[in-house]
Amino acid sequence: MGATDKAKNKLDDLTGQAKEKLGKATGDADTENEGKADQAKSNIKDAGEKIKDAFDK
């Protein structure tokens, strides 16, 4: 996995966590759900990169 891709995925995950916490704090379910979705996308991208790396070896 490239360092750039790994950093982007981590940034997306952290952004999602922040949105989720903000949504919980403000009672905004849409923002909370958007944050959870961002985290899920980040995890899927990360898993895809790991699969690519496994096949490259």
Please outline what is shown here:
The chain is mainly alpha-helical and 57 residues long. The protein has helices spanning 3-26, 29-56. It has one domain.
Describe the structure.
By secondary structure, the protein is an all-alpha fold. The chain has one domain (3-56). The protein has two helices and no strands. The chain has helices spanning 3-26, 29-56. Helix 1 packs antiparallel against helix 2 (29-56). The longest helix is centred in the last third of the chain and has 28 residues, at 29-56. The chain is elongated, with a radius of gyration of 14 Å. The protein starts with a helix and ends with a helix. The model has no long low-confidence stretch (mean pLDDT 91).
Strand count, sense and closure of the main sheet?
none
Count of separate DSSP helical elements: 2
State the low-pLDDT regions, or none.
none
Number of strands: 0
Rg: 14 Å
Alpha carbon gap, first and last residue: 11 Å
Helical fraction equals: over 70%
Counting structural domains, the number is 1
The proportion of strand residues reads: under 5%
Which descriptor suits the 3D outline? elongated
Instruction: Please state the average pLDDT score.
Output: 91
Alpha-beta content class: mainly alpha
> Could you give the order of the helices and strands?
HH
Compile the SSE list and pairings.
Elements: H1 3-26, H2 29-56
List keywords for this structure.
57 residues, 2 helices, mainly alpha
